[in-house]
Design goal:
mainly alpha; 3-stranded mixed β-sheet; two-stranded antiparallel ribbon; 7 helices; globular
């Protein structure tokens, strides 16, 4: 039974691996992108209810909107020309500025972008702001949110599997854990070599 569970988990994980266009990096995406966009839309709306954006007539909002629309257009066109337009399918780009001294900006799945006023003095110019916003937009296009959630789901799944195995085969579970810990430690150390 345990071997079947491990085999099934391996098949699901392999099937959920996607290739990021441009970089070619493999990533784990267990959730459908439509579900990610629905969850992010709700979180975005909740955020905006708690953090009222500056008015659209505010020069900061105009700047963020102008730069954001140019970036969204350029990214969409680039992805279309490179056969990856599905990466922004269903995106409904929105750009808002919130009056908060935090040095931050973010983009949720689906193209929901928020820039905090605290980052504007740091970016200083249109180009500086475009750099930050482009970086955040790239996270959404690369589906990093899905990847992070999928990694969390995978870790929880492994934990539940180990917990189930430890009740039926404690020796095997201990050995698997120790092996995994040793491999994980070695790989972690290699990153700093």
């Amino acid at each position: 039974m345990t071997k079947k569970i491990v085999l099934l988990a391996a098949v699901v994980l392999l099937d959920a691996c996607a290739k990021v266009p441009i970089t070619g990096r493999r990533q784990l995406n267990l959730l459908p992108e439509s579900q990610m966009m629905a969850m992010s839309l709700q979180a975005y709306q909740d955020f905006l209810q708690e953090n009222e954006p500056v008015p659209a007539s505010d020069t900061r909002a105009e700047m963020v909107g102008r730069i954001g629309n140019k970036l969204a257009s350029a990214a969409t066109q680039f992805l279309k020309e490179n056969g990856a337009s599905d990466r922004v399918e269903g995106f409904n780009w929105e750009f808002h500025v919130v009056d908060d001294p935090t040095v931050n900006a973010w983009c949720m799945p689906g193209g929901k972008v928020v820039v905090y006023t605290g980052i504007l003095p740091v970016t200083a110019t249109d180009e500086g702001l475009a750099l930050v916003m482009g970086h955040e937009i790239a996270h959404a296009i690369a589906r990093h949110g899905n990847e992070r959630m999928s990694q969390g789901i995978a870790v929880q799944g492994v934990g539940m599997t180990l917990e189930a195995m430890s009740s039926s085969k404690p020796g095997l579970t201990r050995d698997l854990f120790l092996q995994s810990y040793g491999i994980g430690t070695q790989l972690g150390m290699l990153a700093y070599s």
